[in-house]
Design brief:
Number of domains of chain B: 1
Main location (chain A): periplasm
CATH architecture of chain B: Orthogonal Bundle
Distance between the termini of chain B: 26 Å
Structural class of chain A: alpha/beta
Number of strands of chain B: 0
Distance between the termini of chain A: 67 Å
Oligomer: heterodimer
Keywords (chain A): Signal
CATH topology of chain B: MetI-like fold
Subcellular location (chain A): Periplasm
CATH superfamily of chain B: MetI-like
Radius of gyration of chain A: 22 Å
Family (chain A): Belongs to the bacterial solute-binding protein SsuA/TauA family.
Signal peptide (chain A): 1-24
CATH topology of the largest domain in chain A: D-Maltodextrin-Binding Protein, domain 2
CATH class of chain B: Mainly Alpha
Strand content of chain A: 15-25%
């Protein structure tokens, strides 16, 4: 009897431990009836409104793509998700993509994501301070504590460029990492002297009396491409047709969103909880279908200057 | 004890009534603190605005989908953990060699906080329900396993030997001696695991972004929708209360025959 029990044990233990968490689907592009199931890793922010709009308008289903948008928290999980084919495409800012590229992560951009409006004071990202702050222009940020959502990424790079252009020492900034949603409170409480934020926090802070001191994306490069949609090089090799259809659908979505701002503001209610008043007032970014390569090159140079890359990003390999 | 009760009958009052009064007091504090300017109402809105946001959420389909996602992940994870924990506990517990063999491993693995496995979960399952399940199972499994091990160790050796000398089969011994002894421990394990499973389900959704209430909290936070965020936090709290209540009632019903529930009867 004891032998029987002992024999059972090994099987039970192995089985029970394996049972924990074995029920997840690996996801994938099973093509039944010619329809490709595609998952896209996105962040639930204003920037990705076009793809939600395109999904609703049928731009993807028309091209035999059944789209699922996975709005996971934070962009950190999106790149590994695409590389492992849990999601087939992803949305990420250009600096993060370049960082991944310098680490030889096999990814490639397939479509533009979101771009700066190019208008100082009317962009969707900026450095803001409290109304009574002594900081008047970007160079006054020298020696101050500035919050960014991720250290050594696009936020500190473009903020440094604003300071550099205004005649300050870009190395003399103290960056603090914190999530965007925490910044309004941190700024109000004086935990930080300035915050680099994007919409909707930018509008929230301005509505509470905050003052914009630098339109960082505008300072970095004219019509800066901020983020892009990308996929794994494996998918490009395995199913170039699907990638092509996806790119076309994204481009159609971007063009539609760019010319229908009211529909963009309406679609925001489907995947964010931004309230109606804020939805109506926030600054929308631009959604050109072309990637502004010059601006990406500038971002790469600025990033290299600040030492956020371990090597030099190979834009030939990264961009389409 | 009795003298204290007799000395102060008024203060004891009706416990249910006192509980409600306490809750009302808390709501009043949350309502007044922002209104009086003690805290910034942009960061902690008054209770009435949280309630209004809760009412708005209650009529949105996204909320109910998220609630069911959380409950499914919780129930599935708990079921897997309880099944695996009970099986493994019974087997390990009844074979002394196994128990000695696994003791150090269990003591090493058990204290690892489930949230420390988040990077692993993300790598394996991305932001799907699999990530939530991994964390929920891991945390809940040990709660059950350890209780079952205690339960099996608590078997009366005389009863067990008696069953053996009566030539009870292995199955009959498990069914009639081991299981009834271990059952109260199993229930304790399940009750603890049920609460832990909810905590981990919400945590996974909040941090990893797998579908559910936690993810909705994160979306509300990212959308600067502060009252909605608190409303969802309140929902997770209510869920916790409900689950605990359910587990306790279930335990009392199903263990009505056991002396731990029945109360000690002098023999």
């Amino acid at each position: 009897m004891r032998r029987l029990l002992a024999g059972l044990t090994a099987a039970v233990l192995a089985g029970s431990l394996a049972a924990c968490g074995s029920s997840a689907d690996s996801g994938g592009e099973s093509a039944d009836g010619g329809v490709d199931k595609v998952k896209v890793g996105v962040i639930p922010i204003v920037d990705v409104a076009p793809i939600y709009l395109g999904q609703q308008k049928g731009f993807f289903s028309r091209r035999n793509i059944e789209l699922t948008l996975e709005a996971g928290q934070g962009g950190a999980a999106i790149v590994p998700g695409v590389v492992q084919n849990q999601t087939q495409f992803g949305f990420s800012n250009v600096t993060s993509l370049m960082i991944a590229q310098t680490k030889n992560v096999p990814i490639k951009v397939v479509a533009a994501g979101v771009a700066s409006t190019g208008e100082a004071g009317k962009d969707f990202g900026a450095v803001v301070v409290k109304a009574d702050s002594p900081v008047k222009t970007a160079k006054d940020l020298v020696g101050k504590k500035v919050s960014v959502n991720t250290l050594k990424n696009i936020g500190d790079t473009v903020t440094r460029e604003s300071v550099r252009k205004d005649g300050g020492d870009p190395a003399a900034l103290n960056f603090v990492e914190m999530p965007f949603p925490n910044m309004p409170a941190a700024l109000a409480d004086g935990q930080v002297d300035a915050a680099w934020v994007v919409e909707p926090q930018l509008s929230t802070i301005k509505a509470a009396g905050g003052r914009e001191v630098a339109s960082t994306y505008v300072d970095a490069a004219p019509n800066l491409t901020v983020a892009a949609y990308f996929t794994s090089q494996k998918l490009i090799a395995d199913d170039p047709g699907l990638v092509k259809r996806f790119t076309e659908a994204v481009n159609e979505s971007l063009a539609y969103a760019d010319s229908h701002p009211d529909e963009v503001r309406a679609i925001l209610s489907s995947y964010t909880k931004i309230d109606e008043k804020l939805r109506a007032s926030l600054v929308l970014p631009k959604w050109p279908t072309q990637i502004n390569e010059t601006s990406v090159r500038t971002l790469a140079e600025l990033g290299a200057k600040d030492g956020i890359f371990t090597g030099t990003p190979d834009l030939e390999k990264l961009l389409p | 004890m009795t003298t204290a009760r007799r000395a102060d009958p008024a203060r004891a009052g009706n416990p249910a009534l006192l509980g409600v009064a306490g809750l009302a007091g808390l709501l009043l504090v949350i309502e007044l603190a922002p209104r009086l300017g003690l805290v910034d109402e942009r960061h902690l809105p008054p209770a009435s605005r949280i309630a209004a946001a809760l009412a708005r959420e209650a009529v949105s389909s996204a909320f109910w989908v998220a609630l069911s996602d959380t409950l499914i992940a919780w129930a599935l994870g708990l079921a897997i953990a309880v099944g695996a924990g009970v099986l493994a506990g019974l087997v390990i517990g009844s074979v002394p060699v196994l128990r000695a063999l696994t003791a150090s491993t269990v003591e090493f693995l058990r204290p690892i906080p489930s949230v420390a496995l988040i990077p692993l979960a993300v790598l394996l399952y991305g932001s799907s329900i699999g990530s939530t399940l991994l964390l929920v199972c891991y945390a809940a499994f040990w709660q059950v396993l350890v209780q079952v091990l205690y339960g099996v160790a608590d078997v009366d050796p005389v009863a067990f030997e008696t069953a053996r000398s009566f030539r009870f089969s292995v199955w009959a011994r498990i069914r009639h001696v081991l299981w009834p002894t271990a059952l109260p421990y199993v229930f304790t394990g399940v009750r603890l695991a049920a609460s832990v499973a909810l905590i981990l389900a919400i945590t996974a959704e909040l941090v990893i972004g797998s579908p559910g209430l936690g993810n909705q909290i994160a979306v509300a936070q990212a959308s600067a929708a502060v009252p909605t965020m608190y409303a969802l936090v309140v929902v997770t709290g209510l869920l916790g209360v409900l689950i605990n209540l359910l587990a306790r009632t279930g335990e009392r019903r199903l263990l009505a025959w056991h002396q731990s529930v029945r109360g000690e009867v002098a023999l």
